[in-house]
Amino acid sequence: MYSSTFIFASGQFDEDFHRIDQDIAAFARAIPGYLGEESWTNAETGLVSNVYYWDSLQALQQLVQHPRHQQAKSRQGEWLAGYQVVISQVLRRYGDGKIAAQLPAALSEAER
């Protein structure tokens, strides 16, 4: 499993931003190999972190190569006050079972 984490400082969002963002999210969720996502905001810094989970790098590449994603990337300076992306391979996940898993249960089998 892989994760792509998009960390950004918000700028000024307009209608184009929201429309493109919705299109990208819908496309991502339709890609075979998309496993789920989480979003976090750091109240202290104001940074937002969107984490997407993928079963393969090929699935992630489909999103990266999509024309709407490319359009958003080329226009990020209009909407964001900075960003970075972190691509990671998830080696394992575990916990005490007291919170609901954000990812499909079948994923645990694949991680073994």
What's the helix and strand layout?
Blueprint: E1 2-10, H1 15-30, E2 34-41, E3 48-54, H2 57-65, H3 67-79, E4 80-89, H4 106-111
Antiparallel strand pairs: 1-3, 1-4, 2-3
Notes on the structure:
Helices cover 39% and strands 30% of the residues. With 112 residues, the protein is of the alpha+beta class. Strand 2 and strand 3 form a beta hairpin. Helix 1 runs antiparallel to helix 3 (67-79). The longest helix has 16 residues, at 15-30. It starts with a strand and ends with a helix.
CATH class annotation: Alpha Beta
**What distance lies between the first and last C-alpha atoms, to the nearest angstrom?**
11 Å
Shape: globular
What is the count of structural domains?
1
Sheet with the most strands, sense and barrel status: 4 strands, antiparallel
Spatially, the strands of the biggest sheet line up as 2-3-1-4
Which class of secondary structure composition applies to the elements? alpha+beta
Q: So how many helices?
A: 4
Radius of gyration: 15 Å
CATH architecture: 2-Layer Sandwich
CATH topology: Alpha-Beta Plaits
The topology string of helices and strands comes to: EHEEHHEH
Strand content: 25-35%
Approximately how much helix is present in the residues? 25-40%
Instruction: Report mean pLDDT, rounded to a whole number.
Output: 88
